[in-house]
Design a protein that fits this description.
Elements (H helix, E strand, L loop, with lengths): L7 H12 L3 E7 L9 E6 L3 H19 L5 E3 L6 E5 L3 E6 L1 H7 L1 H4 L5 E3 L30 E2 L2
Parallel strand pairs: 2-5
Antiparallel strand pairs: 1-2, 1-6, 3-4, 4-5, 6-7
Length: 149
């Protein structure tokens, strides 16, 4: 699995989360594990306003670019965990504490995981996109590189 192989809606959700400075962005491919959806997009926000801003940006970008709206929303007023269900994929926006507690990546560890850079390509520190390394899952991986545990 690589970033470019993801469905357009999943890529738009990732980019929207990046635009609002979400951290620890990852995509789980659930298509081969008999799940109720094909993908999870998981990320972290560091305050209630940021969690809400990430959700709003995801909704706005998917509606603007694809005419899609979530089939279901949960926790939009919460600072701990918000969920946007687009049918074929679900976006989870967690606080740091809730993400560690619920640990969806562990629960779905049999699913392939793609760790995504926190910033869109080309916007790395000092304008050098090659200097960025994704350490969201404890390693040193190139942005968009598939990582399995």
């Amino acid at each position: 699995m690589n970033y470019n192989s993801l469905p357009q809606g999943v890529r738009l959700a990732v980019e929207a989360a990046q635009n609002k400075k979400a951290a620890g962005i990852s995509v789980l491919d659930l298509s081969g594990v008999g799940a109720f959806t094909s993908y999870f997009v998981i990320c972290t926000g560091f305050s209630t306003p940021q969690v809400q801003a990430i959700c709003s940006e995801v909704e706005e970008q998917l509606h603007k670019e694809m005419g899609r709206s979530p089939q279901h929303r949960e926790g939009r007023g919460s600072s701990e965990w918000a969920l946007l269900d687009f049918g074929s994929f679900i976006v989870h926006v967690f606080s740091e504490q809730a993400r560690a507690y619920y640990d969806l990546e562990r629960l779905w560890r049999s699913a392939p995981k793609l760790a995504i850079a926190d910033e869109p390509e080309g916007l790395g520190s000092h304008g050098n996109s090659h200097s960025r390394r994704n350490v969201a899952i404890g390693g040193s991986h190139a942005p968009g590189e598939a990582v399995s545990k």
